[in-house]
Every structure is written in structure tokens, then in C-alpha cells.
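We store amino acids, C-alpha cells; thus:
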Amino acid sequence: MSTTHEGTRTHEAHEDITALLKLEDVVQLISPTGERQSSPGFDSWVDDVTTEQLADLYEDMVVVRRIDTEATALQRQGELGLWPPLLGQEAAQIGSARALRSDDFVFSSYRENGVAYCRGVNFTDLMRVWRGTAASGWNPYEVGMATPAVIIGAQTLHATGYALGCQFDGSDSVAIAYFGDGATSQGDVNEAMVFAASFQAPVVFFCQNNQWAISEPVGLQSKRHLSDRAPGFGIPSMRVDGNDVLAVMAATRIALDRARTGGGPTFIEAVTYRMGPHTTSDDPTRYRSASELDEWRAKDPITRLAALLESRGVFPDELGSRVNSKADAVARDMRAGCLSIAKPNPLSVFENVFAEPHSGLERQKSQYAAYLASFDSDPDASTQGDRS
């Protein structure tokens, strides 16, 4: 499904939208109970989204949630070393990713598995890094998305550099960087915004404010909205309900259109919530309350879109059955792909480190090869190898 929108707004119109944004704390087009809300300056950007396309967005979110729960189960069963859940953040990822063109380029953190799904990343490739069998999961140029950045905020620099390259080439492609609320306190993110603003780079900074940077609440690191930071760099910002797939899509379209027409960077704060742990090695019950979880569960992005579709008479059993069947099929394919991944040759870790031969690396490889060979001559080699 593609809901890319080619806008024709002028820079003056963008400035009008910026003024309208000041009237709303958080832009919302679908309420938590599924009512369609009106928002001046945003409605026109999603007027073309049909009810059928909303159903497709619903399918996307259900499938992505199933990918997430299946991957979490695989980790709990010892098939993955780690998994970063996105439970609760489906609308922020699907709404923004479906607004992109195929020639736009995504730079993400480690949680944007929903975006990866929209970009067409193979399910098996999605598992490789977390199964510990590869340093990189897929070919970025085949899907228009870089592999996840684990260093917090580093991808914003990459996105800004790529955007400057698009600008230099005379292309109207746009780079988008995804990051969390915690990353806004990192130097890389702030340095990226300095460069982007200085050179009017066609880049979108998309912050998923999921309320927690591991165990640190967003209110501890920022006394104002995160979207208030960007204007200090000369970058206009929007603050939208990140659990509202339609509001997220509208905001992303505005930002993309602004970038394509020479308006420079935009910062989007999508206010959402991480329903699960930071990663599968985290225990969120140690730092957040059950009542907080219940409060956000009532704002679930999938149930609110389902309510809207039901009010329009397009949520019969047939749609639910079709979507659930698709989610089940995806989960089966992903599990089968994960379990089929072959273990790599241990010495392959030294491949693709340097473009040219490197004596230091060759020495390390030789030493590691000798270490591995030592098990072959040991009668207990197989047992020792398992322990290592």
C-alpha cells in the first residue's frame, strides 16, 4: 500500500501551518475512541486517504504488532539474543513510513522494525543481527533504508549527510531519521540539527517520544516539550499524537513536502508510549506503574483505528479475519526464516572490516584461527566449544 502524497503547497502555506500548530498542544485526527477529529492545517494533507487505505494501515499495524510479539517469543525461547519491542508505537512508524517515496532514504535506530516492514525488508534479514549471525541485516540500497544504528542518535548525522548529498545532486529525495526521546539529549542529534539548519538540508527528524529512555522518564531530561528544542536551531517543529496513524501521516507529509520544495529540515515529535520493555533484557515493572500502563493502553493505536473503521461500516468479521490470517502467515514466515539462518564461519567476523588489507587485522585473524584450531586437538573440544 502506498499513501504517498505529492503536495503543491508554497512556503507561505508552510508558514501558515506553523502558525496554526501553535494553537494545538498535540495534533490529533483520530481520538482514542475512534472519532475523526478536525484539525486546521492538517486535514487537507490526508483528505485523499480513503477508507480502504485506512483499512490497509490497520492491517500494517496488526501485522507489525504480530512481528513484534513473535520476535519477543523467539527471544524468550532462546532463538534470538535480544529484541527491542515496539509494542504501542505502531501508528508512529506505519503512519510516517507509508508517507515516504521509494527514493527517500531512512536512517533508523534499533526499534523501527515497523518502518523496515513498510520498506520491504525481508523477514529473515530482520532477524539476522538479533540472532547474532551478521553484523548487518540487509542491503540498504535495495530497500532505501540503512541498517539500524545502535549508537544512540548517530543516525541523525548520517541522515543529514545523505540529505546534503541529495541537495548537492539536485534531487528532491528526502532523508528521514528516526530516534527516541532519550536521543535528543545526545550530542549527535543536536550537531545534526545544527548542520541541517545551517545548510537547509532536506531531512526530517522524527522523534518517537515513548516517554521512557530505558528507565529515565522524559520529564527528567526535558522540562518542556521535545518539539520546543528544534526551533532554537531554526528548525520548525510539530507535536502530534503518535498513536494516531492519520495525524502522523499528515505531519510527515507536511515535512516531506517542505523538504522537497527547498524549505529545509523539520522536527516531528510523535507522542506515543512504549508498552513493553526497552529491550527483552529490561524489566519495566521496576520503574513504571501499572496505572500508567493502563492509561496508555486506553490510547492504543490499533483499537482506535478499528473503532473508526467500524463506525464507517468497514470492520466486519471478514476484514478482521483477513488481517489476522495475514499476520499469522507473516509470523510463520518470520519464525521459519529465523530458524533457517545458518551459523556463520567464526573467521568471517574479520571480513569487510577494512577496504584494503590491514596487517593488524590479519594478525588478529591468525591468532583467533589458532585459538579455534586448539579445540580440534583437544579430546573435550566439543564440550569446551559449547561452553564458550
Q: What stands out?
A: The chain has two domains: 11-340, 348-387. The longest helix spans residues 51-76.
